[in-house]
């Protein structure tokens, strides 16, 4: 187990080094290509209720995806994580500028006081963040295991889609028993279906 954690830390460090070599213009172009592929992806187009995310450093930027989804009249839900109670609540947002607050770990998340909870069973597509993925759907996240706990709770019919830059696709993600895979990965160059 410790060996796998060390390998994942190495992957995170490599991704951050590679990411820091990219210009902001290059990142923007790649992000726009990923967005275009996502908005042409049939499962996303047809979904009425989409679980999205607020990106962290080294993850594909999500603000434009959220805003465009809202403009397409999708119901957009974002996760709110209570780490102390090990609970995940999905909350519907209607406006990025008014519906978010600083949560635990100084990350933005939906405001539980103003956003309506949505049952996880209603999610039709889940866009899952990650720092690295492999072609088998393995993912390396931030290391806190929050999405590994969320993914199994999603309906079996909900597609789990990772967004990544091509440079974040690696040969092999070391998987622990609690690690969960995504079904599909969308990069700036291709759509990868889990092997």
UniProtKB/TrEMBL annotation:
It catalyses: (6S)-5-formyl-5,6,7,8-tetrahydrofolate + ATP = (6R)-5,10-methenyltetrahydrofolate + ADP + phosphate. Coiled coil: none annotated. Its EC number is 6.3.3.2. One of its GO terms (biological process) is folic acid-containing compound biosynthetic process. SUPFAM superfamilies: NagB/RpiA/CoA transferase-like. Belongs to the 5-formyltetrahydrofolate cyclo-ligase family. PANTHER family: 5-FORMYLTETRAHYDROFOLATE CYCLO-LIGASE, ATPASE INHIBITOR/5-FORMYLTETRAHYDROFOLATE CYCLO-LIGASE. This is 5-formyltetrahydrofolate cyclo-ligase. It comes from uncultured Desulfobacterium sp.
């Amino acid at each position: 187990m410790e060996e796998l954690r060390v390998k994942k830390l190495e992957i995170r460090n490599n991704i951050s080094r590679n990411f820091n070599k990219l210009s902001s213009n290059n990142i923007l172009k790649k992000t726009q290509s990923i967005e275009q592929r996502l908005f042409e992806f049939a499962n996303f187009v047809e979904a009425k209720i989409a679980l999205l995310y607020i990106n962290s450093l080294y993850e594909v930027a999500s603000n434009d995806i959220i805003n465009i989804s809202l403009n397409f009249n999708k119901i957009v839900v974002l996760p709110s994580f209570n780490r102390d109670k090990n609970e995940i609540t999905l909350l519907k947002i209607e406006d990025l500028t008014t519906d978010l607050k600083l949560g635990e770990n100084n990350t933005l998340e939906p405001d539980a006081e103003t956003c309506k909870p949505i049952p996880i069973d209603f999610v039709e597509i889940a866009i899952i963040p990650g720092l690295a993925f492999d072609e088998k759907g393995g993912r390396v996240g931030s290391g806190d295991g929050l999405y590994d706990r969320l993914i199994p709770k999603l309906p079996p019919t909900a597609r789990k889609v990772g967004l990544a830059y091509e440079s974040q696709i690696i040969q092999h993600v070391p998987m622990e028993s609690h690690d969960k895979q995504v079904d599909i990965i969308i990069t700036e160059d291709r759509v990868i279906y889990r092997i």
